[in-house]
From TrEMBL:
The keyword DNA damage does not apply. Keywords: Pyridoxal phosphate. Gene3D superfamilies: 3.40.50.1100. This is D-cysteine desulfhydrase 2, mitochondrial isoform X2. It comes from the Eukaryota. GO terms for molecular function: D-cysteine desulfhydrase activity. Belongs to the ACC deaminase/D-cysteine desulfhydrase family. The keyword Translocase does not apply. InterPro entries: ACCD_DCysDesulf, TrpB-like_PALP_sf. Its cofactor is pyridoxal 5'-phosphate.
Length: 358
């Protein structure tokens, strides 16, 4: 776990990196405070009761006076978009305007059958008039659900055998070339980012745009995005979030923070760039679905048993053992649509008996 303290940085460099168009109108995120009403000394969360303070006071002096119970804060990136994961929305925050500046017509990317990344790309591109093409690993499921259903509704889905999927770059290039056709062009996102950075430094317009009157039937311009949007531009949206959270009326820059975030490939954690604790889990354990149900009933916040529940548990334990001058902040990255696929895979764990609300 990293203890996060503010260190002086090159403000001009940060401002230059963040001086761009963004997909999100604002970096704002709702912040909740979770009170732990009956903390356990053994650190187990089974019998812990939570209460959600939906409009917490973040003023440090007032907060200390009212701190009768341990608590932690949740940054609600899960509320950024109804169908796009919070961490995916942050990754695409700087990426999508680049596609628009380049005047792209099509986007090709890949992921697993229940990929939150491909679903996010499909929805975000379709909202902007771009055609998303999604290469999904494995076979089509009998029942479309969760992220797979969203990807299918919004994008052009092709299922790829695992043997071919193993050679991702070759697979993506071949499919992008087939989409572009004889008169189209293919470019990788990293190449667009490099050209954009050079033009930004010289003050030139990023890319020349086709005149829709003179060129009504323009050639296809296909952009290839790596699996998981792991390109460097994906970090900028998370850096923008940190700049927002570091404002004085929120968490500021002078107090120490422990930031907890769940992570898969780690792009979001790297983007935080604050030494946060990064957890990645891939299996459901007995009792975890019931724990998710309890949290949802007590706080109105839905977490999933793969990723965000792990972050929630760590935040709970840290807040019970934290020094008074240190806050615990959990970044809720979303992921709740993945519950649908999990319910099919782990059916026995989702047979929850009806119980009274506690």
């Amino acid at each position: 776990m990293g203890v996060l303290k503010h260190n002086p940085v090159n403000d001009k460099l940060v401002l230059r990196l963040l001086d761009r168009r963004w997909a999100l109108n604002s970096p704002d995120a709702k912040i909740n405070q979770i009170m732990i009403l009956n903390p356990k000394e053994d650190g187990l969360n089974g019998d812990v009761t939570f209460r959600n303070i939906t409009q917490p006071c973040l003023d440090e002096g007032i907060m200390k006076k009212n701190q009768s119970f341990p608590s932690f804060y949740v940054v609600r990136d899960d509320l950024l978009h109804p169908l796009v994961n919070g961490n995916k929305a942050r990754k695409l925050d700087a990426l999508l305007p680049l596609l628009e500046d380049y005047d792209a017509t099509d986007v090709v990317t890949c992921g697993g059958c229940q990929s939150a990344h491909t679903a996010a790309v499909a929805v975000s591109c379709a909202e902007r008039g771009l055609r998303p093409h999604l290469l999904l690993r494995g076979e089509a499921p009998e029942t479309l659900t969760g992220y797979n259903l969203v990807s299918t509704l919004y994008g052009n889905v092709v299922y790829v055998p695992r043997s071919l999927y193993a050679k991702r770059k070759e697979m993506l290039t071949r499919h992008a070339e087939s989409v572009a056709g004889r008169d189209g062009s293919v470019i990788w996102l990293d190449d667009i980012l490099g050209a954009s950075s050079r033009n930004h430094s010289s003050g030139k317009q990023n890319f020349s745009k086709a005149d829709p009157v003179k060129c009504p039937e323009k050639s296809r311009k296909v952009v290839v995005i790596n699996e998981g949007a792991g390109d460097s531009v994906a970090l900028l949206g998370v850096v923008r979030l940190i700049q927002y959270l570091s404002q004085n009326h929120l968490f500021g820059k002078d107090q120490a923070l422990n930031i907890v975030v769940d992570a898969g490939t780690g792009t979001t954690a790297v983007g935080l760039a604050l030494g946060a604790l990064c957890l990645g889990f891939g299996n459901i354990l007995k009792g975890e679905v019931q724990e998710c149900q309890k949290i949802a009933r007590q706080t109105g916040i839905l977490v999933d048993p793969i990723y965000t529940l792990a972050a929630w548990d760590i935040a709970t334990k840290l807040s019970q053992n934290m020094l008074e001058d240190r806050k615990v902040v959990m970044l809720h990255t979303g992921g709740t649509l993945g519950m649908f696929g999990l319910a099919q895979r782990y059916r026995s764990y989702f047979k929850i008996p009806d119980e009274d609300f506690r």
